[in-house]
Amino acid sequence: MVPPSGFHKTLNNMKKYLYILAATVACRQKEMPAADLSQVRVYHAGIGEKQYLYKNKHTVTIVKIHSISACLLVALTLVGCTSRKKPLETPKDQLVHQLFSYAEKGQIAYGHQDDLVYGHNWVLTDWEDDPLERSDVKDVTGQYPMVLGFDLGGIELGHAKNLDGVPFGLIRKATQQHVQRGGIVTFSWHPRNPLTGGDAWDTSSKEAVSSLLEEGVGHEEFMQWLERAADFIASLEVPVIMRPWHENLGSWFWWGGNLCTPQEYKSLFRMTRDYFSSRGLENILWCYSPNGSCTPEEYQQRYPGDDYVDIVGVDTYEFMGEGTLEEAAQNYRKELLPALDFLKEFSSSHGKLMCLSETGFESIPDSKWWTQTLFPAIKDYPVCYVLTWRNAHDRPEHFYAPWKGFAGAEDFKVFAGYEQIVLL
Fold first, then answer.
1. Residues 65 and 116 in one domain
2. Nearest-CA neighbor of 243 among 49, 127, 111?
3. Can you tell me the mean pLDDT for 360-365?
């Protein structure tokens, strides 16, 4: 018998509200102030577990519920469900709370790729004893970006440096230092093509992804890749965001839209998270971030599932092309705004955070880009963070954040000074 149209969506909504009711009743059992259901935010924390953020003027509470049967029993694991604030349970819980707090307040954390390890005209070499205080963003604003991005490309082969030449030892030190300062770190991964030996942009074969799955010719080797990546993440000993297999709806990476089937892609993503979970690496938030030039149907077709994703995002860039700056801005908005409209609805209905996982305008030729293009585009959405790409030290035109002496730095200072934008 085929269920009627909309049956599964209705069932999921019923489960959601049963969970919310259980969390609300549990808080009332602890003599919390009367709960407003609109204040209980559903957050899928991982396989077999859900978390709920309950917020009022007195407290923020995380409630863990492991099954629908918990709605009928008082078998709930409560964290801080009292009349005063208590510490959140784990570093991951604290990161979740930090990101949800930004979204709840209408704030957006600003991020920059590789910010502490090199900049537009400098690179850190003697890093072992360096305090890691240099930053292009800090040189302009006096503050570090709240979010710091790094890439794991090269870790799969056991290399000492990533694909951009940054030592993994330096990445570890910068990650720990940034989190200690109160910041957030996110990792992308551009691994080599496992079938051809080429780089991540080698799209010469449509068999790369399938070769990594169970029974595939490269499966055993890929598990070694995952082991090396997991070893490195484990060595950080801090909560981070993992954003693997990104921009998967385009076809410029070997895991892209025309290079594998939707099921193969989902299996790749799930296998990656499953392996990290099997290693006990639970201080990770997992981000699904296709390229923004896609339809809602395309976005959802390769979505790995609520149990595998904590944050949903998109990667959307502005390009100059052959037209004017105004035309470039119009094209950027035309691509970005529909994606953010969809993500706002999708993240709410699925209990996820949302972000603008990568963006920027190479060389920033528009002197008012930050205040007249980027900020107006994102300010009305619950975007917990936005990350602009790197400032390459060896490619003078390849930069996405201002640097000391850059002509357009003043507009960025205005952007960074907005109450809604969060730096460190």
1. no
2. 111
3. 97
